[in-house]
Amino acid sequence: MLKSLIEPFRYRRPGAAMEAAAEGQTAGDKGKRKPRAKNTSRTLKQMWSYLIAYKRKLAAVIFMVMLSSGFSLLGPYLAGTAIDHFLMNRGSGFVVFLIGMAVVYALHSITMWLQNIWMISISQKTVYLMRVQLFEHLHRLPIPYFSKRQHGELMSRVTNDIENVSSSLNSSVIQVFSSALLLIGTVSVMLSLSPLLTLLTFLVVPLMLFGMKWITKQTGRLFKAQQRNLGDLNGYIEETLSGQRIVKAFSQEQTVISAFKERNERIRISGFWAQAISGFIPKLMNALNNLSFAIIAGIGAIFVLNDSITVGVIVIFAEYSRQFTRPLNDLANQWNTLLSAVAGAERVFDVLAEEEERKDEGAARELAEVKGSVVFDKVMFAYEERAATISDVSFHAAPGETIALVGPTGAGKTTLIQLLCRFYDPSSGSIMIDGHDSRTIKRENLRSHMAFVLQDPFLFEGTIRENIRYGKLDATDADVEEAARLANAHSFIVRLKDGYSSILRPDGSGISQGQKQLLAIARAILANPSILVLDEATSSIDTVTEIKIQEALQRLMQGRTSFVIAHRLNTIKQADQIVVLQDGAIIEKGSHVQLLERKGFYSSLVKGQLNNGLCEVSESATK
Ligand code: ADP
Fold this sequence. Notes:
The chain is α/β, with parallel strands linked by helices and about 625 residues long.
């Protein structure tokens, strides 16, 4: 049930981005926390804690990396030695060297292939686990977490960021490790062959290091910006697509498109610079490589003439100098990919580190049965960083009573309901259910005694039968049908081509708003709760369906404590108590007749035909 509530209670409604854009503010700016200082070492440690689960395979990968690095060192060495051998012995034994080299290169390929396959398997298992953990965790996070964030941005973490981690685990980790090994190996062999020539070859190293450091610093920043911009764009697309109706209804297509273009442009710019600058790395390396090659060839020739080294050593050096700059080059390239993966992983770990919905206290009780007495006792509540939203609210609903919550938009009606079902807890005061403080009742148990019929009911992609059964998962087909009959939904369902097996689209389109309400009522009837929350639809529904809804609701509300966020005078009139809210406080309460006699706010609302825009009661409903 909880899942179904998240969507309707979201504070950021679809289309908010459009309005924000109109105010010259981006949706991303609005809902985003300040970027936190990046903690690479902590993130790496966390990633390591995942990888360690596959330590045997990882050890095998490391072993293969060592072997392949050894083979790639051996190849040029054999080539150089073969040349010397050939020059000295006039060709004899040359074939043996050739065969040796072929074997070495073949082994090199095999070890490379094995390390790749094994690492891919480790990385796929790791990201599989991360995805599951992240998804499960998202479903355990408290509602306030979602109300502060765009859905698309969160989706981007589950998909893009994790994909980034996966691809860099596949290749970058191996690359970085083998590059480091190759570097050490190459330098050691070079030093053992000719320390002087090695030193001369290394003349270009400071230039390389300096250039690489500068480039990686720039690209790291740019890649991070690109990822952030991509997340922002995803969020915006999701928001505008789900708010399509509102966008169209307010003819805001152009505003939305230009806000999209702005975000797209930001990605283009950061993407251009990130790739342009990182693409510069190989060019720089190549130039410096050629420089070191020239040094080896020129100075090496002099050494050969002096007889201090052989021609074979020059060949080995020339090859190694290439091998030596390649790992540096790879390190620089892969370092970037690693950085962007670490940034992605950090965003994933950030979500995982978010505190879950507070565990029910140890003493949390489960109520087997709820009669439906609800008492709000001096309830105060404030959303984070805001002044009190609800102040000193007290009222008592006896079992079976209907309470109409009335008041201007923003008065706190929805907030009261969210407190009732413990999406939030009061900052002071208490809410008692059958005499028990709601904070001592397990959330899940409390919510199992409640059902919700909201303005825009949550319907998922599945059959009508499954959608109704969402109210009680073990209900039989006969129970489902019975509930649908009581909800006046049966007749329209059987008229559909596939009846109860008709598939609803994810957004519930394909059936009318009124029919959606009837399904929500059927679902609530099936759930058979003691406490009912009803958010009356403001949109006008055709008269026939409206009558059906009213009739079904009467049946549903019978014998249950019902809280109705009411918009129609008829509903309000029939309520046992009307609670009139303004700015989070109760300004009047009583029955319709009592409140009219008081000649206060409520009576002026009703008399003034509620057309001063202060109340959500629709005019047509007052006739
Ligand atoms: P109503 O349902 O009567 O229209 P709400 O309970 O939705 O009113 O809102 C009461 C006040 O609390 C409003 O000022 C609204 O802006 C604010 N509010 C609602 N939800 C949130 C939230 N998640 N975070 C911060 N403020 C909120």
